[in-house]
């Protein structure tokens, strides 16, 4: 089975990792097309990869994260990463099914968690806006995280050189590439969680009933999602690094109790994995 994601998009890599965790002992071929072709494939957001695999006769589950972009071929099984509590901004594409929450397989957190985890998405963010954020607000937040929590790990999907340059004066900050890290495991060990407004970060905090502070939304995609989430959940935002409330989240786990439990069963990743298993065992 081939598993592929857009490595420059945080939601795409988070979705791939969560579905892969439920595939058990199925042999996986990695990111590139093997020889002979795989019996099935999961492709997250990469329409070109889906088209290539379908041309080879490989059945594909195409998992789309975020807003509608380039439509995948109709012969793919399309799933749309979207929690049930967050209404779709418009009618779904023909044949596309919402997944619900793509929850991490491990739902517990370390009792001795410490430090700060920052999940940063610069995908689809204009260069000037990304640069201003990295050299301004991100630098101030990282410095405050070191002072308040002792350590800070920044996981970013793209723009790593820019982020590392902006944070170079803070050698205690780790900067990791999302496609090469395990953000879900890092979150289990972190005391404070700051994240860009992306679906994967929301699912992570919701599943674990953990506090989440949203970074300022960057780019039109994040601003649209932040607006939609704000209509449902009163999540705090990281507007002031000196606000002590950002760094002492133990008093409140977050507003997750406000969500209707009937809207989502948190098994979205399992359902996508089940579809992949069915394709692998009985291809269309």
TrEMBL record:
Residues 88-109 are annotated as: Disordered. InterPro entries: CGA_synth-rel. This is CGA synthase-related protein. It comes from Streptomyces qinzhouensis. The lineage of its organism: Bacteria, Bacillati, Actinomycetota, Actinomycetes, Kitasatosporales. The gene is blsF.
């Amino acid at each position: 089975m081939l598993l592929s994601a857009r490595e420059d998009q945080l939601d795409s890599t988070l979705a791939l990792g969560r579905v892969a965790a439920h595939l058990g002992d199925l042999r996986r071929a990695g990111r590139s097309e093997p020889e002979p072709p795989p019996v099935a494939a999961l492709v997250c957001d990469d329409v070109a990869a889906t088209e290539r695999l379908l041309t080879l006769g490989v059945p594909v589950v195409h998992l789309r994260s975020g807003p509608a972009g380039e439509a995948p071929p109709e012969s793919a099984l399309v799933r749309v990463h979207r929690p049930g509590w967050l209404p779709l901004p418009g009618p779904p594409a023909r044949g596309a099914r919402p997944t619900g929450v793509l929850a991490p397989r491990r739902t517990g957190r370390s009792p001795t968690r410490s430090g700060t985890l920052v999940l940063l998405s610069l995908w689809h963010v204009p260069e000037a806006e990304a640069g201003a954020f990295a050299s301004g607000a991100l630098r101030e937040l990282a410095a405050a995280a070191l002072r308040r929590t002792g350590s800070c790990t920044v996981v970013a999907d793209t723009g790593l050189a820019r982020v590392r340059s902006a944070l170079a004066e803070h050698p205690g900050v780790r900067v990791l590439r999302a496609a090469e890290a395990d953000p879900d495991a890092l979150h289990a060990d972190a005391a404070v969680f700051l994240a860009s407004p992306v679906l994967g970060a929301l699912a992570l905090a919701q599943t674990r009933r953990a506090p989440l502070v949203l970074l300022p939304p960057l780019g039109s995609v994040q601003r649209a999602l932040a607006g939609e989430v704000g209509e449902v959940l009163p999540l705090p935002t990281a507007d002031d690094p000196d606000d002590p409330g950002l760094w002492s989240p133990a008093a409140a786990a977050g507003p997750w109790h406000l969500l209707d439990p009937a809207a989502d069963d948190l098994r979205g990743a399992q359902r996508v994995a089940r579809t992949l298993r069915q394709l692998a065992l009985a291809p269309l």
